Amino acid sequence: MSADATPLRGLDSAVDLTPHVDCLSGEGFSFAIRYYNIHNRSKNLTLDEAQALVGAGFQLGVVFEDGRPTHPSFFSRAKGVVHGTAAYHMAMDDIGQPDDTPIYFAVDYDAAPGDVAGVIKEYFQGIQDGFQTVGQGSPKYQVGVYGSGLTCTELLAGGLATFTWLSQSTGFSGSRAFAQNKHYNLIQFLPQHVCSIDSDPDQTNPDKPSGLFII
Known about the structure:
By secondary structure, the protein is an alpha/beta fold. About 35% of the residues lie in helices and about 20% in strands. It has an 8-stranded mixed β-barrel, surrounded by 4 helices. Helix 5 links the parallel strand 5 (about 140-145) and strand 6. Helix 3 (about 75-95) crosses helix 4 and helix 4 crosses helix 5 (about 150-155). The mean pLDDT is about 95.
C-alpha cells in the first residue's frame, strides 16, 4: 500500500466485545484483537464473538498470553512448545482462523538483550516447533510477537517471527526507533476507557500486512 494510506483503528481487550460491538463501530474502530490462552478460558475469543464482530464489519486479530510473560523466568523452549501447540489448535479447531494469518505471542516487559537472545528466542523456537508438529511440517499459521522494539527486531532477524505488534511502552528498548521507522505490522497506544470497557487502542501500518482476518 502507499505511504499515504490511512491506518485502520482498532483495539485489544481481555473481555467479550459482543455486547459493545455497535458502540465500538460507532466510535470508529474497525478491528479487534482478542486472546487465546489455556488457563483462563473466559478471556478467550469464542466463535460466537468472532462471528458477531465480523458480522458487524470488524476484522480480527489474536494474541496468545497464558499467565504473565513479564519476566525472563516465564520463558523456556518447553513452554513455547506447549503454547504454540495450544494456540494452533485454538485457531484451527475453535475459531477456524484462516490460513497464513499470524497468532501473536506476548513478551510483556522491557526485555534485556540477554533475555531476548536467550530464553525468549528459545521460547519462540518452541512455538515454531509446536507449529511444525501440528502442521505436520507445513504450518498454516504465522508466528507474530507482541513486545518491545528490541524484542520485535531480534525475533524478526532470527526468523522466529514474521509479524510484529509493538507494545504501547515507548520507553522500552528500541521501541521509539521501531515505531519511527514503521517496522511494525501493528502498534499499540496507551489504554483508554471506551464503550464501558477498558481497552488499548491499536493501529495498522498501511505499508505492511496487518495479519488481521475475517472468518
